[in-house]
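hey so u asked for the seq, here:
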Amino acid sequence: MRLAVELANAEASLRQAENALAEFEAGKAEPSEIGKAFQNDEYHVLEALDAFEMSEVEMGKGFKLLHRIRREILEETAIGGQRHKSLRAYVGIARNRRRRAFDAWMAERTSGAE
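ran it, structure tokens below
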């Protein structure tokens, strides 16, 4: 009975990981907390660049910062970026967990049938 519950939990975890990956790949996933923070930072940098008089050096630093923020946002949102890689890894871990749980459940069932 315990192994059946573990198998059910592993199956649910796998479905959840696969759904999260599918949503991300379809572009329907909500931004992560880190992604939201970077988007907020981007907004504030753009606002500061527009609102304040700055020298060319200061403007250059502002645009450089904006470029770095946008690279981080891309890492969070792009296929092949860090978040995508993490979601794919979670699916792999969940599949392995499910396979191990299924193997244990089958071993218990076949040993009890003998």
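Residues 35 and 73 are 6 Å apart (CA to CA). The two ends are 18 Å apart (CA to CA).
lmk if thats what u needed
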